[in-house]
Amino acid sequence: MSSRRRPPSAAARHALFAGAAFAVLWPLAAAAQVPEPGVLAPGSPLVPREQRGQVLDNAPIRPNAPAKPAKVINDGLQPGELYMEADQLTRDDKAKITTAEGHVEVRYEGRTIRADRLVYTEGETEGMGVIRAYGHVVTLNSDGTSEYANELTLDDKMRAGVALGFSARLQQNVKIAGASAVKRNENVRELNKAIFTPCPICVGDTPKTPTWSISADRVVQDKVRRVVYYQNARIHVLGATVLYLPVFWHADPEAERASGFLSPNLGASDRRGFSYEQPYLWVISPYSDLVVSPQINTKVNPFLNGQVRKRFYSGDIVARFGFTHDKDFDGQGNSFGNDTWRSYILAQGVFHPADHWRAGFTAERTSDDLIFDKYEIGKVYEARGPYVADDRRLISQVYAIRQDTQSYVSAAAFTIQGLRPGDIDRTFPLVAPLVEAHYDPNMDVLGGRLRIDGSGVVLTRDQSPDNPALRLPGLDSRRVTAQADWRRSFISTGGLRFDPFVNVRVDGYSLSDVLTGTGATPGTATTASKSVSRALAVAGADISYPMFRRWRDATVVVEPLVQVAVSPDAKQIVVSHDPITKAPVYLNEDSVSFEFDETNLFRADKFPGYDLYEDGARINVAGRASILWDDGRRGSLLVGRSFRDQANDVFAIRSGLRTKSSDWIVAADAQPITGVSLFTRARLDSNDLSIHRLEAGVNVSNKWGSGYVRYLTDDFNVNLTNPLAPASAKTENLDLGGEIYFGKNWGVSAYGNRDIAQDAWVIRDVGVFYRDDCTRVDVIYRKEDTVIGRLGPTSSISVRLTLATLGGPLYAR
Questions:
Q1: Which of 32, 175, 627, 787 has the smallest number of Cβ neighbours within 10 A?
Q2: Distance between CA atoms of 223 and 437, rounded to whole angstroms?
Q3: Which CATH class is domain 15-158?
């Protein structure tokens, strides 16, 4: 259905007209224009009366020039201008018929019509004319869509009409065709004996059966309601009819969004039996929508998921929620206990009330610690605000942040809900407020740069996490900090870099409910309050000497790194003493999960928080080597450790930093070939080089598939062991997954997470999928071997279907 366009012959030149074009096709749009001298006014005869009925040759007509210069649109015409081109143009004034024949092309306001023949019949009154186009009719719209027909009849405003042998290519590569089409106005189109598909329908010039399509006796595209309706719809897969629906509808592919059903999620598991989840999108307004997604289960009661989105002038809110009324159940779907409401909410809001300002909140809470596992609710433990909780923990927060090129100020408050076995919410502190500030003066101080920071926090805890059975009072703390950091750089002509630095800090603490003794009954204890202030400082220098050399087709860089730092003895905050060893227990609210690695090897104070402080004299050393090939391959290696003048018991035993000579730090990464990258980081014992912690991974991606492998071993498990005690529980984990493609369309997917320390698989997924340009179908078998609370091992099968233009899958885990 091409236009078979070719340049006009010498006997038929271009016909360019605007005023005359309005008389032919758009009389109402130009009726009020005032003609310039020498230009045909709207409504003027196209040709002199003495030439009526004759064929016009070389008859250019000057366009109606606007009174003021107008903006040129992308078709090269001024707004309101029309361009027509044909091999020959005939005008019958008596019958008021204009005929264009031979490679006709009409362009107006970004729309182009091409045909073999075009006939315009003027109406008795303005706006009543009729345009008829015959043979290879093509309409090209400004949005990139195109329409085709054997014959097309339109009103003279090109707003309504009828087409025979109609087809169209819409946005998102959607194709729709029908025996006939009726365009009632700019917003409503009807097709009879129609078919709809976003799939390829030909390979080169060879017809191809689409992967899926919808045919119907009647199809109505309503652009106002942004919906496509079908009457007597039949859904075909690979040409075979698989479903008949008397009435069916979906969102208009040309619309940005519209109400309608999204792709369902089907599954079967030991916990819930067969499960069907059908999301429905309700577009409430241009600025808000609601997704309601009921989950129907055969073993347990239905569960309703939902999501609300609302956009405001300065920001937006997104809230996910879900609830049911049911008994509790175990890993096999066996119910027990009483019926009660069970629900969750995962909400966030972000607003920009003024320049440089950002404010928002998150609300994350659930009535049941296992609700996300039981009903397979995905994308739970994600960052929704500036403060992020650990895995299997929810955080609710409010915050306000102001940031520009020189300063940063934030104020926040948050609480945490623990979902791990053994978590007691009363032991988590309420953080309110948490204030942080940073200022970077835009000036040199003693030839270097100066940064000023401030921080303050109030922590309120109902119950002590130590020995929860005794229900001891929780420690409350309040801290305020001010610090200044100065640094300067010197680079010698030989390339030696010397960066001296000085950091000074002042802290003030106020503590209450400091435990001094326990009572005879649970919940009773003696406590005290105290205030502590301290001044801290560190001075030192970073020294490096990078050296590079060309070697064949690569550049080799070797760089020794040294940091020297000295601090006076710090006044650590002691809150109790170990009852057995009598060793002091230091206040540590913000460095509990501290891990010594290459990221903090060259930090003058290795603790990430404020409560603990590294003091004494120390030297941090490392060697870094890199090789960079010209073709993009690369590799790098870093080896380093820390030395100090005396042991420091402020560091945990497991940290590798407590002795005079620290553990060895090793980090490497490489990309040996295109599509393959690998990394590793490790902490090795300072004496025998045994591995205390190792993390390694490989990523692979090519035309045959993609995948990854991750391995982690750590002689300490932060979830099970006191950070101040010797390591007593080991972590060893293997995580791997990927896809392998067989041919163009088929493939298999796999995912596994194995707890090597427990000699058990945590999760195993195996799937088969089919994919093409418009469809993806996944069938996934999952086996979960872990015991989470009352949920024991379980198996499940899920089916995930994604159809182009009909919405993405509502499936994530």
A1: 32
A2: 51
A3: mainly beta
